[in-house]
Specification:
Structural class of chain B: mainly alpha
Order of helices and strands of chain B: HHHEEHHHHHHHHHHHHHHHHHHH
Helix content of chain B: over 70%
Shape of chain B: globular
Largest sheet of chain A: 2 strands, antiparallel
Order of helices and strands of chain A: HHHEEHHHHHHHHHHHHHHHHH
Oligomer: heterodimer
Radius of gyration of chain B: 22 Å
Helix content of chain A: over 70%
Number of helices of chain A: 20
Largest interface: A-B, 38 and 36 residues
Largest sheet of chain B: 2 strands, antiparallel
Number of strands of chain A: 2
Distance between the termini of chain A: 37 Å
Distance between the termini of chain B: 36 Å
Strand order of the largest sheet of chain B: 1-2
Radius of gyration of chain A: 23 Å
Structural class of chain A: mainly alpha
Strand order of the largest sheet of chain A: 1-2
Shape of chain A: globular
Chain lengths: 527, 525
């Protein structure tokens, strides 16, 4: 009967404006993922690694090419398709490029690990590609439903990847924890979506909406504003879990520590960036800044912004302080990834706070730049960690790094560079990233937030340096021989080292490209 | 080429570092060649840096920047690659390029392991230090300021003494914490003035766009803490004895010779010029801290059993003089402070070289392990005494000129209520310096030979003599004929001083008196 009612109230069923060009990158990756699975079945075991890896890389390259094509206006002036389900703007495209880069690097890093562990390469690669599609959908969705779809696709693929080493208990535990807590958070997110849907129904009998743009338009006419607040809070918890903000971070260390190192590398960079893509889109454009102070929209905006400030401070502080006492490198990097989410959120707060469109775009660009630099340095660091850990993730304690500095100078100096970049030492990407987010926050007057961020950076110096100290300033007590660098690892290292230095010394071009990240939604909702 | 000279000066050491690494990749490499490559590049840098002398801040009152380079670096955030050198930075750049070859030669035999990395880090450090002194864009300045930490961190940590890990981490964290707050200050300045460029910000300030009261105080503190830690001024000094003592000889020489000056240079260049009102407001506090540093550093130096630690604490005392001179806001005081920066670099650098030399021979630095070195190493002892006297401030040697000017300036200063008291307290520092240095000399150099091991130590060889001679000659030249140094710096120092003593549009008794003083200046010259 409800269905009947709904039919009556909706004027007419709108023809979905199908536009495949807009989802071309997602389509390509999906198709390649299926192809990889098929090819895997018909390839000799010894060749699987290279063949499926190669196809995946080609697919990622092709998708990147389509993204560039879309970026340069290949799809014309269209800004959304499928009834606003999918949007096309440069915020989405720049995030998509970051995801593609992360996946490509993950493939390169995992090549040697697959060989060590004798794992089914095809399965791994296709799972990775499906996870990538999930991330891309999280960036491209203009509708809460698409975002949820992307998030689930990503999550399920990563649950499996975390437990990919079936015979290893640590991997199993990691996968299980991730699965249980992850589904819990998905439930929060879904419930939040449902509540927002309910709240945005208007009293004229029009049903609610999950479209982000329409949510923003209906905030002030919502019949059940309380539901809106509860729904937004639940959305925040759901995304906060994905991004690993304190206090929703508790899963991160366990999962990161237990998961195979290349998968950890992927999880720390990819889903985090994807989480930010959705998180920012939903809150900055779904619950935007409203000029009139007394309206529901303004209240919602203030509420989430204040909550986000608290989350940001907690995230930075918890991540950095707890990282100080870790003795396992992967666990330490897990807490460091929490801290970095906190720094990026400083930019997010700035983007949410400003009514000015240019400043908002700049703040969003700062967050995207931060995610890019974090992805590069994080994947670089995990490349080295993978190589040092060897098969079965044997050597991941900080003591295992003692005195390897001059035994394996390439790895050790590369890792030092990545760690220094995470500290934010000038001439590295991490420095520019921090400058950008702190800058946009200062521009909005968040002096205290920035000072807390800076003090946290000072705290972080200690634990990053600890690893460098272990590598260079301590003596090796046990016998150890440097691992031989395989070609794929060498390429991954070259890309990440180049990336960190390039983003640190000549960030101009990238920043320039990102500055044009004009989310189209923002233009539509500027009432 | 001359218009790119500063860039070349920064790039040449980097090139040298890359060259060292590239040579290390060759199959036919020889461990002994790294130091030659490094020496070659550092000497070339020194030679090129001499070209600066002709152009920068000569004689006349023009205090502007020479050899300027100004191109867009990151257009997106308005950061520019803006370099330039004036009378203040000129001497500091020259000090850097002079100390570096000496540091390299001093580690000729001392560094046995991992020569590639050692010399590469030294050269990278040189590039960063030159960059600090010539940067005119605040972001570029910060970049070099922070970048200089990393090579030093590795130098202490890998080639340092027993307690090197602790010292290296402490050094890094202390200085990073200080400078990170400066970064916030820099970004805040950017939002107020729309530029990271020092000259543009200054021009806007001169036009009357001054900072408001509290903002200026906060920004002053954000910058000052970074520099006070680096200098180091009394409560922030604890990293220094550790870092100095644990660092290899070359590291200590550079640390004392150049790195510490980055702090006082920053105060002079940025704090004074950008935040004049706050500088005056905080001057009594700074002078108090400086005096505490002078006396405390000297007293602690007196009781050190370790020669190197003694020299390190004497640095705290000497740098206290520099800060004192800077905050006197008088012509003599500030020039004396700049001069004292150079003196301290030369004298203390030399003292660390001497300590390194006896350490190489005996593998100990404890005063009690020595005694009567004059019998076994006459040449060494004579020169060691010479350099110590320069550090104490004996007339006709360089230390005297700087300290005398500083105290003269402080006496006339209007920045505190009882300048004569500050001067007298500071003057006791000179006496303490004589006490701790001479007492140390007495126990190390004079008297009978107390340890058999010391009886057959070889005296200075030609390499050691060669690397000491330039410093010893400078001590005499700077002590006897300081005019060329002071003259080139005068106009630039005066420009900075003019910001503080005559801020536009503000009255008050202080300014009136300062104004009067300014009017008398031409006669003094």
């Amino acid at each position: 009967m409800n269905f009947h009612l709904a039919l009556q109230t909706v004027p007419s069923i709108i023809n979905p404006d199908i536009n495949f060009a807009l989802i071309a990158p997602e389509l390509i990756i999906s198709v390649v993922a299926v192809v990889v699975m098929m090819v895997d079945a018909f390839t000799r075991r010894a060749d699987q690694r290279w063949v499926t890896g190669g196809i995946s890389l080609l697919g990622l390259g092709a998708a990147a090419a389509t993204v560039v094509w879309l970026w340069t206006g290949g799809a014309g002036a269209t800004q959304s398709a499928f009834n606003g389900m999918v949007v096309l703007d440069k915020m989405r495209l720049s995030f998509t490029l970051i995801f593609l880069l992360i996946s490509a690097l993950t493939i390169l890093i995992s090549m040697i690990w697959i060989e060590w562990e004798r794992l089914p390469a095809g399965e791994f690669h296709s799972l990775l590609l499906f996870a990538t599609v999930g991330m891309m959908l999280m960036a491209s969705g203009g509708d809460l439903v698409i975002l949820f779809l992307g998030l689930e696709l990503l999550s399920i693929a990563t649950y499996v990847m975390a437990g990919f080493r079936r015979t290893d208990l640590r991997s199993n535990e990691s996968s299980m924890k991730y699965f249980i807590l992850g589904s819990f958070s998905s439930a929060f997110l879904l419930y939040g979506i449902a509540l927002v849907y309910g709240a945005t129904a208007t009293d004229r009998g029009v049903p609610g909406t999950t479209n982000i743009r329409e949510i923003a338009e209906r905030l002030d006419t919502a019949v059940y504003p309380q539901l809106l607040f509860v729904g937004a809070a639940m959305l925040m918890i759901g995304f906060g879990f994905k991004v690993a903000t304190a206090p929703f971070h508790v899963w991160t260390p366990d999962v990161y520590e237990g998961a195979p190192t290349p998968v950890t590398a992927f999880m720390a960079a990819g889903p985090k960036a994807a989480g930010f893509a959705s998180f920012m889109r939903v809150f900055i454009f779904g619950f935007p800044f409203v000029a009139t102070a007394a309206s529901t929209g303004a209240l919602a905006h203030t509420a989430w912004l204040n909550a986000l400030v608290v989350l940001t401070i907690l995230t930075m502080t918890v991540g950095n302080v707890v990282a100080l006492v870790q003795s396992n490198v992967k666990r330490m990097l897990a807490y460091s990834s929490i801290a970095h989410a906190g720094y990026a959120m400083v930019g997010f707060v700035a983007a949410g706070a400003t009514p000015d469109e240019a400043q908002r775009n700049e703040a969003i660009a700062a967050v995207i730049f931060y995610m890019l630099t974090y992805a590069v340095m994080n994947l670089g660091a995990f490349t080295v960690v993978t190589m040092i850990a060897r098969n079965n993730d044997r050597r991941t304690a900080i003591e295992d790094y003692n005195g390897i500095g001059f035994e394996a100078p390439t790895l050790a100096f590369a890792l030092s560079l990545f760690l220094l970049s995470m500290v934010g030492v000038p001439l590295t990407g991490g420095f520019m990233g921090k400058i950008m987010v702190f800058r946009s926050a200062l521009n909005q007057g968040y002096v205290v937030l920035v000072v807390i961020g800076v003090l946290n950076t000072a705290v972080s110096v200690y634990y990053y340096l600890r690893l460098i100290v272990a590598m260079f300033f301590r003596e090796r007590t046990t016998l150890w021989s440097a691992p031989r660098l395989s070609a794929s690892i060498a390429v991954a290292l070259a890309i990440t080292i180049f990336g960190v230095l390039y983003l640190g010394v000549f960030p101009g071009q990238v920043l320039d490209a990102l500055r044009t990240t004009r989310p189209t939604i923002s233009q539509l909702i500027n009432r | 080429m001359l218009e790119n000279l500063l860039t070349i000066l920064i790039l040449l050491p980097i090139l040298g570092a890359l060259g060292t690494v590239a040579y290390g990749l060759l199959p036919s490499r020889r461990e002994s060649h790294y130091r030659w490559i490094a020496l070659l590049f550092s000497l070339a840098t020194f030679a090129l840096s001499l070209l600066l002398v002709n152009g920068a801040g000569t004689g006349d009152a023009s205090a502007g920047f020479r050899f300027e380079q100004n191109v867009s670096w990151i257009g997106e955030i308005g950061a520019r690659y803006h370099l330039g050198v004036d009378g203040i930075s000129l001497w500091l750049v020259l000090l850097t390029t002079l100390i570096m070859p000496i540091a390299i030669v001093s580690s000729w035999h001392a560094v046995e392991k991992r020569g590639i990395a050692f010399y590469a880090f030294l050269l990278l450090l040189e590039a960063a230090m030159i960059g600090v002194f010539v940067a005119l864009d605040l972001l570029i300045f910060y970049l070099f300021f922070e970048a200089s930490l990393v090579p030093m961190f590795f130098l202490i940590g890998i080639w340092g003494g027993q307690n090197r890990r602790y010292a290296a981490i402490k050094f890094f964290i202390y200085t990073a914490l200080g400078s990170l707050l400066m970064l916030v200050g820099i970004i805040a300045l950017y939002f107020i003035y729309g530029s990271f460029d020092y000259t543009i910000i200054l021009a806007q300030m001169r036009e009357g766009r001054t900072l408001g009261g509290t903002t200026e105080y906060w920004l002053f503190l954000a910058f000052a803490i970074a520099f006070l830690v680096k200098t180091p001024v009394f409560p922030f000094h604890t990293w220094l004895p550790d870092a100095h003592t644990e660092a290899p000889t070359a590291g200590s020489v550079i640390l004392a010779g150049v790195l510490l000056k980055m702090g006082t240079y920053g105060l002079l260049r940025f704090n004074f010029a950008l935040f004049p009102t706050a500088s005056r407001y905080f001057a009594p506090l700074m002078i108090t801290l400086a005096i505490i540093g002078i006396i405390y550093g000297a007293l602690v130096a007196m009781v050190q059993p370790d020669v190197k630690r003694l020299v390190a604490y004497s640095s705290v005392s000497h740098m206290g003089f520099v800060v004192l001179g800077l905050f006197s806001f008088t012509d003599q005081g500030m020039q004396g402070a700049l001069y004292q920066m150079l003196n301290h670099g030369v004298s203390t650098g030399a003292l660390f070289l001497f300590v390194g030399m006896i350490y190489e021979r005996r593998h100990t630095r404890m005063i009690s392990d020595f005694g009567g070195l004059g019998h076994s190493m006459p040449l060494f002892s004579a020169l060691f005494v010479f350099a110590s006297l320069s550090s104490i401030g004996l007339p006709l040697l360089n230390g005297f000129v700087g300290e005398f000017l500083i105290m003269l300036g402080m006496w006339n200063s209007t920045s505190v209520q009882y300048p004569w008291m500050a001067t007298m307290l500071a003057a006791t520092g000179v006496i303490w310096a004589a006490v701790y240095m001479l007492w140390m000399l007495q126990r190390v150099v004079f008297g009978p030979l107390t340890h058999n091991k010391n009886a057959h130590l070889s005296d200075l060889n030609s390499r050691e003599l060669g690397l000491l001679v330039p410093l010893l000659v400078l001590m005499v030249v700077m002590g006897v004929y300081p005019r060329p140094f002071l003259e080139r710096a005068r106009a630039s120092v005066e420009t900075v001083r003019a910001r503080i003593v005559a801020p536009q549009g503000e009255g008050g008794s202080f300014t009136v008196q300062a104004q009067r003083e300014l009017e008398h200046l031409p006669e003094k010259r």
